[in-house]
Write a structure and sequence with these properties.
Shape: rod-shaped
Structural class: mainly alpha
Strand content: under 5%
Number of helices: 1
Largest sheet: none
Number of strands: 0
Length: 47
């Protein structure tokens, strides 16, 4: 069983791909949260 010659992705490959996708998703979500938080703060500070 040679993982290097296997055409199918190994568990490590799949894990790495998932981790990368999660990090990208998290960055996007955090960016959206920042906008929401800033959007909520602004009117409160104006009052």
């Amino acid at each position: 069983m040679e993982p290097t010659h296997s055409p199918e992705p190994t568990h490590a490959d799949i894990q790495q791909k998932v981790v990368t996708q999660l990090k990208e998703s998290r960055r996007r979500i955090e960016g959206e949260l920042q906008k929401v938080i800033i959007g909520q703060k602004a009117p409160i500070e104006e009052i």
